[in-house]
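Private note to self, pasted from the team thread so I don't lose it. C-alpha cells:
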C-alpha cells in the first residue's frame, strides 16, 4: 500500500471530518513519526486504545493500520465517537485505502480498561489525544494494560508546555516529563520520547467550510500544501526547545 501521509493526500480526510489544513498537517506529521518508530515489521494486531477527545476521529491511525494490513481493535467509551469512526472508514476519501472489515469497534465502560478477557496480545498499541482524560489510578490502569497486552505502545497527548494551544483547545495535556514519568511508574521502558505536530502557523486560524472546500482545488493552496509537506518532513530536525514550546503533541514509544 502507498504511504498516504502527505498533507495533500490527507486534506480530503480532514475535510470529511469537519476539520481543515491543521488536521491534515497533524495527520501527516504523526504518520511520518509513527512509520519511523514502528519500523519495517508489520504489526499483525493493533489496538487503537482511545480516539481523540476532540478535533477529528483519528483516521491517521486507521491509515497506519491499513498500511501494514493489520487487524485492528478500536476501543473507546464514547459510542458516538465509534459511530463517527465507522462512518469515516466508509467515506469517499478512505474507501480505496482502508478495508472496514479489518476493524473491530469496541465500546468500553471506561477508557482505563480497553482490553477484554480472551484478547490475544497486540503487536502495536496506539492512541492520540485521548489519555489526557485519565488521571491517577485510571491512568495507571490504562498504562498497565498497555504494558501487559502489547509488544510496543506509542502514546500521543496534547503538549502541556504549549500553553497557547491547550488554552485554545481547552484540552488537558502532559509535559513530556510527566508522560515519561507516568510510563516509567508502571514499569514501561521508554524507547523514545519527543514532540510532534509543529505547524508553521499559529493555532486558532479558522476558515469557512466553503473556503476549506475551495482550497482542495486551488493551485496556490496546493503549493502551500507542498510547503507544509516539506516542513512536516523536517520537523524532527528542529531545535528541541522550539518543539517543546510550540509542538501540539508529545509522544512516547514504550515497550
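Design output:
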Amino acid at each position: 500500500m502507498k504511504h498516504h501521509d502527505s498533507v495533500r493526500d490527507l486534506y480530503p480526510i480532514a475535510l470529511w471530518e469537519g476539520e481543515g489544513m491543521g488536521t491534515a498537517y497533524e495527520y501527516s506529521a504523526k504518520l511520518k513519526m509513527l512509520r519511523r518508530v514502528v519500523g519495517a515489521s508489520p504489526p499483525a494486531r493493533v489496538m487503537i486504545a482511545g480516539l481523540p477527545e476532540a478535533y477529528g476521529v483519528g483516521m491517521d491511525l486507521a491509515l497506519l493500520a491499513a498500511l501494514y494490513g493489520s487487524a485492528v481493535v478500536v476501543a473507546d467509551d464514547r459510542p458516538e465517537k465509534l459511530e463517527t469512526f465507522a462512518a469515516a472508514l466508509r467515506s469517499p476519501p478512505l474507501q480505496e485505502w482502508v478495508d472496514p472489515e479489518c476493524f473491530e469497534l469496541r465500546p468500553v465502560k471506561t477508557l482505563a480498561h480497553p482490553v477484554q478477557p480472551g484478547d490475544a496480545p497486540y503487536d502495536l498499541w496506539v492512541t492520540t489525544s485521548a489519555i489526557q482524560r485519565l488521571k491517577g489510578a485510571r491512568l495507571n490502569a490504562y498504562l498497565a494494560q498497555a504494558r501487559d497486552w502489547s509488544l510496543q505502545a506509542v502514546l500521543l497527548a496534547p503538549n502541556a508546555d504549549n500553553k497557547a494551544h491547550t488554552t485554545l483547545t481547552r484540552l488537558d495535556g502532559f509535559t513530556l516529563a510527566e508522560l515519561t514519568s507516568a510510563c516509567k511508574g508502571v514499569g514501561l521502558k521508554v524507547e523514545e520520547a519527543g514532540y510532534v505536530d509543529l505547524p508553521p502557523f499559529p493555532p486558532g486560524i479558522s476558515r469557512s467550510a466553503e473556503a476549506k472546500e475551495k482550497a482542495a482545488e486551488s493551485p496556490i493552496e496546493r503549493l502551500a500544501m507542498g510547503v507544509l509537506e516539506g516542513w512536516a518532513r523536517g520537523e524532527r530536525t528542529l531545535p528541541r526547545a522550539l518543539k517543546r514550546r510550540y509542538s501540539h503533541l508529545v509522544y512516547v514509544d514504550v515497550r
